[in-house]
Amino acid sequence: MKKVTGILSGTRILCRDKSTIEKYIFLGDEAKKLGGFSVIEGLYLIEKGTLEVYDKNRIINFATLLEKGKNLTRDENFYIKYVVFRDLMSKGYMPATGFKFGVDFRVYDKKEEIKTAKTYEKNEKNISHSSNRMHSKFLIKVVPEEYISSFPGIAGDIRLAKAVNKNLIYAVVDKDSDILYYGIDIAKI
After folding, report:
1. Structural domains of the chain sorted by starting position, each given as residue range(s) with its CATH number in brackets
2. Which residue of 16, 45, 109, 118 has the smallest Cβ count within 10 Å?
3. Does the keyword Lyase apply (predicted)?
4. Cα–Cα distance between 168 and 114 in angstroms, integer?
5. Which of 32, 48, 115, 135 is catalytic?
6. Is the pTM value of this prediction over 0.70?
7. pLDDT tens digit string along 46-105?
8. ∠128-17-81 over CA atoms, to 5°?
9. Is 135 a catalytic residue?
């Protein structure tokens, strides 16, 4: 299989061959507008053997892109976010950035997306301009196992998720990169 080529540009990887990339990752409207995808998505594609990333006319490997991603985003949890992204992908979900929701990822169900796309094709509608587009089901906040939060902080996360009709999940990653997913909700008594 021929690898797709991407160019590192700030915190994005620019790629002309979006149709090939869309077979592996979810390129939402933001990615299409920005003309590329995130470093975390790029790491996943490199690991899958699908992508070659160039930086200043040189191919960079997984470890180099990981280090650049940490430095560019100034995020000490960058690697564990990648671990969660990869795990979600392996389970058939389609993670996308959750930045505007104050979390790390919003998550779509891949099976639903494929089914929805087939329905739109039959009706000859353009998926990207349909008012019936699929919505994410979950908001994922990635935290290391030593993460400390207050009840008001957690309650704020839950309120935000509920305000946009999503379920909040904390992805807790330990030192061995094992992940536990905790769904958190508010109960009315």
Report:
1. 1-74 (3.40.1170.20), 76-189 (3.40.1350.10)
2. 118
3. yes
4. 24
5. 135
6. yes
7. 998 988 999 999 999 999 999 999 999 899 999 999 999 999 999 988 888 888 888 999
8. 75
9. yes
